[in-house]
Every structure is written in structure tokens, then in C-alpha cells.
């Protein structure tokens, strides 16, 4: 695999190297929470000063595992479904799902900006099941390319927090209108993290995380279904997905009893699944 310069990515796109570093470093561990050979290969093939993101941790690997579990569950009943990975970045979910034996008949739509798609096409293997779409997730023309006759599972992993709240709600509403019967999964940060990024969240003395204007609690995600003030048209049901247990503090944080403490429940990151 050739080596490329990761500095070709700028702005929010640079954060895909942050998540790659966390996931790939975790996958290299003998006791890692994720097995991800392609993440390791990408990490070694992209020349970048990963230390500017601070020390690696389990968070993004555990998030990836949560997304894998939900995607596998959907594909178990919709094996020919369209999987739409919005702002996919350098995620390698497709190959993990292939190793799990659930990707034989699906069509995978990889949506991201042209510089990210260019890196993916250079460093990751081509596959007839993968349809690369070099565009913003907010450019709704990607919807015209998706064949959802056999179901659709839409993921927004590490995306929505970087969008304006109005754009988030309109994107979800448009997905619900365009793909009735589909499922959508996304992760969110709590409001206190958003406020921190808006003030300038320095991961190290050499890197400040981009602003993350969209935030919500787990309960806000549940409120997207129904008829209340937070409801979004076309969202039939919503559920909060617990984070898989990791090591040490990450194992403790995944304990159900801890989430029953109101202050912790309101201030933790969340993963939400919506059915349209």
C-alpha cells in the first residue's frame, strides 16, 4: 500500500484522521475492543502527525462497534438493503461487515467530500458493491442514486455534530420523506461538549477541534418520534443505543445502573436509531 500525505485533508475532514487514529490504534492492541485490519492499514499508510490529536482512546472504536451491531441486525432481515454511509470519512465498516458475513448482497453508498473519496479510492480496495459519491451529505442529490427497494440503512457516524441544528433536522426529515420504512443511525454529543468546542476545544497545543454546533441528549433523540415539540415528521420510532463496554473506565461507563443517574444520563454522548 502506498503512503500518502494526510495533510491534504482540511477543516472538518481532518477529523476523520482523528477517528482513524483512535480506531486503528485500538485495533492494533491484542486486547483491543475492535478487530479492524483495514483501519490499521490506513493508519500506517497515511503520513500525518497523529500526536496532535492527543493520546488515543477507545471511544471511536466502541462507537464503530455499536454501528456495526445495529447494521448487522438490519442486514439480517434486509440482506439486499442499501447501506448509505453519510460523511463516511475513513471508516472501514464495509470490510468488518463483510468479515461478519452480512455484506454479500448489499449495496454500499459511500458519501463524502472529494478529497476524502480520493484517499479512499487510492488506499482501499475497489468493490462492485461500493458506490462512491463524492459530495456533501447536505447535497440531497445522493438520494437519487440510492436504490432502496430492498430497504435502506442510513448512517451518520461522526457527522451531525458538525452541522447547524436546522440542517440536522431538515436532513433527517428529508431522509424520512424520501425513504419511508428505512432506518437511520447517528451519534450525538451532549450540549456541554458543544459549548466547549464553540469556545475552542484544544486536543493538544497543536490542534483545536472544529466547532460542533449540534448537540442533544439521549432523551432529545427519543423525542424525535411522536407528536411532541422535538418530533420530526416521518420518524415513526426512536431508541437510544447503549455503548458497548470497553476496558477500564469505558467498561464502567457502559454499566446500565450508571445511566440511571440523571446528571450522567443528560451529559453523556448518545447514539440514536430512528425508524421511518
UniProtKB/TrEMBL annotation:
Biological process terms in GO annotation: methylation
Keyword Methyltransferase carried by entry: yes
Domain of life: Bacteria
GO molecular function: methyltransferase activity
Keyword ATP-binding attributed: no
Swiss-Prot/TrEMBL keywords: Methyltransferase, Transferase
UniProt name for this protein: Class I SAM-dependent methyltransferase
Organism: [Mycobacterium] fortunisiensis
Source lineage: Bacteria, Bacillati, Actinomycetota, Actinomycetes, Mycobacteriales
Amino acid at each position: 500500500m502506498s503512503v500518502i500525505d494526510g495533510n491534504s485533508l482540511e477543516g472538518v475532514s481532518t477529523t476523520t484522521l482523528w477517528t482513524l487514529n483512535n480506531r486503528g490504534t485500538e485495533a492494533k492492541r491484542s486486547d483491543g475492543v475492535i478487530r479492524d485490519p483495514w483501519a490499521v492499514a490506513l493508519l500506517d499508510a497515511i503520513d500525518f502527525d497523529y500526536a496532535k490529536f492527543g493520546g488515543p482512546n477507545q471511544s471511536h472504536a466502541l462507537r464503530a462497534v455499536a454501528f456495526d451491531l445495529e447494521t448487522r441486525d438490519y442486514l439480517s432481515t434486509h440482506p439486499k438493503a442499501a447501506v448509505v454511509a453519510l460523511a463516511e470519512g475513513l471508516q472501514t465498516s464495509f470490510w468488518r461487515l463483510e468479515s461478519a458475513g452480512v455484506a454479500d448482497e448489499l449495496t454500499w453508498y459511500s458519501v463524502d467530500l472529494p478529497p476524502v473519496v480520493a484517499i479512499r479510492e487510492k488506499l482501499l480496495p475497489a468493490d462492485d458493491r461500493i458506490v462512491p459519491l463524492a459530495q456533501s451529505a447536505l447535497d440531497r442529490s445522493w438520494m437519487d442514486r440510492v436504490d432502496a427497494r430492498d430497504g435502506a440503512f442510513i448512517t451518520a457516524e461522526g457527522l451531525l455534530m458538525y452541522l447547524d441544528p436546522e440542517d440536522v433536522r431538515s436532513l433527517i426529515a428529508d431522509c424520512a420523506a424520501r425513504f419511508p420504512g428505512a432506518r437511520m443511525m447517528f451519534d450525538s454529543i451532549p450540549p456541554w461538549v458543544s459549548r466547549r468546542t464553540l469556545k475552542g476545544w484544544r486536543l493538544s497545543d497543536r490542534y483545536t477541534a472544529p466547532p460542533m454546533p449540534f448537540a442533544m441528549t439521549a432523551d432529545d433523540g427519543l423525542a424525535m418520534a411522536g407528536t411532541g415539540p422535538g418530533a420530526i415528521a416521518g420518524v415513526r420510532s426512536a431508541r437510544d443505543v447503549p455503548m458497548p463496554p470497553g476496558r477500564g473506565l469505558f467498561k464502567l461507563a457502559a454499566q446500565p445502573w450508571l445511566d440511571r443517574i440523571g446528571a450522567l444520563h443528560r451529559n453523556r454522548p448518545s447514539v440514536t436509531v430512528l425508524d421511518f
